[in-house]
Every structure is written in structure tokens, then in C-alpha cells.
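User: two proteins, same treatment. go.

Assistant:
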Amino acid sequence: MIDHVSVGVSDLQRAARFYELTLAPLGLSPLVTRPATIGFGKNYPEFWINLRADMATVAPGSGVHICLRAKSTDEIDAFHAAALNAGGRSDGAPGLRPHDRVRYYAAFVVDPDGNRIEVVTFPAE
């Protein structure tokens, strides 16, 4: 249903470094680079960062987040560690999150601009 998503960033170079390291464990890499935007993906750009030089940091209570799918719990663990090493902060350590209808494994991070990114997989029992 969703083809691609984008987030605003106040410093394109800082965000590019952050996302190159953070998205690599998921198999995503920069595929398109333009003066004010970079598209990451596997075969085509699925996740974009867009320069918004006057952007304020995203408010913690905004409720907005983007969730990406991982193939395994190992990918999620690596994503979370890479994000922390690249200057992000944890907003939910990797782990199982039992839910009413589904059982899933996820981690949440916040990028340097306050964008909240989740990665999820649905492991077998």
C-alpha cells in the first residue's frame, strides 16, 4: 500500500551519515543523491531524507513514527546498535512485544532530528 516514506532533516550530511550506518543492517543503501535529498533502498528508493534547513527538532510527543520491516531479529539488533553508535538514541530496546493479535519483535530509535524510526519482524513461535 505504501510505496515510500520521507523524513525531514535539518542537516543533510549529518543525517546521511546517520542513515547510511543505521539502515545498512536492513540492506538499504543510498541509491539517489540530489542537492537536498537522498533516497535509500534495496532496488529503488523507499526511504528518503529531505533537507529542511529551518526545521525545528521533532517534538517527542508528536506521535509520528515510521516503521520498517526487517527479515530477522538479528537485523533489528544490528539496526538498533548502529543507530546508537551513529548518534541516535533508543526509544525502545530490541525485544519481543506481545500484542492482542500478533507477536512481534521490534526496536525504536530517534534520529538526531527527533524522527522516530521503528524496525519490526514477526518471528515464528
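Protein 2:
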Amino acid sequence: MGSNLMTPMLGIDITPGLHLQWHIFGLTINADIVWATLIAGAVVIALGLTLRAKATSGVPGKFQLLWELAVGAIQTQVDDSIGPRGANVVPLALTLFIFIFTCNLFEVLSIGSPIDFLPAPTSDINLPLAMALYVIVLVHRAAIKNRGVKGYFLHYATQPFPAKAFPINLFMNVIEELVKPVTLTLRLFGNLFAGGLMLSLLTALVIWKLGPVPIGGILSVPFTLLWKTFDMAIGAIQAFIFALLTILYFDTAMAQDGAH
């Protein structure tokens, strides 16, 4: 994905969404997104292995306590939404939260250049879309397991209105199912992509206004740090929202018809 924003007043090209690319068998692959995703995955695995090595049934250390707080928060949300039947959703939601938050933290390493060698993988639409589709497939699998194949299809024809209104039910439910992965994808991607764009704009501001000033480059540091701090908070919130929506989608899939 690439775009070019030309600001006449600044005379500066801002080119967000550029990537180092591989061309394999006619396919274009964003190489920086691939290795950033692999690094984020390795970080999550390393955190899990570290936790297993340090886990104790006695007084937990700070690292274990942090994990237990995260697990407790997800567990509480699942219990409140789905109940005991949602126990299998906890590891998925927790993993998604930790992985997405790790990916989002890469945004802190960005310097506002056209190409970052370690970009936030979630700022490229391909990763959020892949995760969203993966979640939706699991949600439909849970719905089939809960209602059976016949009940799964009947649900779309008989809910939320009586069976006589099945064309309306079918239309509304199909639209809802199509919107779910789009919502998951665009919310995460849009916020992270906007963060990178804002950092590029801050860099352009330095060139435009602060560049001629003898200490202009230094003056830009507080602005950049302030934005990165705000961006970290947004990254944490978006990771939580993605995990929360995953839980809510499973809640709908695993509930009996008429329960919502």
C-alpha cells in the first residue's frame, strides 16, 4: 500500500505506506512487514517461555504478576460475556492482545522516515485483515459446534425477527457477518497507520518551521516524544478493543437464539 501527500504550503512530499518489497512468482510482498511480524511473534513466544521458567505457585514476581493481571482481566471479560463455556476463548483473546500490543509498540521505534526498517506490522492492512479473518473463521466454527449445521443456517433465517420475515433476517445477518472482519481490520489498521502519518507530519514540521532555527531539531524532540507516548496509549487501547470484539463475537456465536 502506498500513497503520496503533497503539501503545497510546505513543499514537502509525505509518503506513508511505503515498504521494502520482495517480488516472488508475480506476487509483491512487503518484506519489512514480514520480518517485523516474525520478530513480534518471537517476542511473544520469548515472553511466554520466560513466564514458564519463572512461574511459581508461591509469591509471584513482578513479571508473573503482570501476566496474571492480564489473564485475570481477559478471564473476567469472558466470564461476564460468555460464562464458563468460553474458557477456550481466553488463550486466544490473551494471545491476540499481547501480540497486537507488541506489534503496536514498534511504532515507537519509527522516526517518521518514508520507509521504516522495523515498522508496526499492524500499520499495514494485510496483518489486521489476516487476524480478523482468522478470528471470524473460529467464530463460525464455534457457532456450528454450538447450534449444529442445521441450527447454524436456521439462525440466519429466523433471527432476530420471526421466521416469516426470513428475507429481512437473512439480509441483516449476512451484512452483519460481512461487516465484522471489516470492522476488526479497519479499526486496528486505521489507528496505527494514522500514527505513522502523524509522525511523518511532525518530521515535516521540523523541516518547514524549525529547520532554519539553530536548535530547531532539538525543539522537535519534545513534540515527537509526546506523540509517541500518546501513540503507545492508542496502541494498547486498540489491542484491547480487538481482543474485546473477539470475545463479543464468540459470545454471539456461542449463545442460544433469543439470548441476546
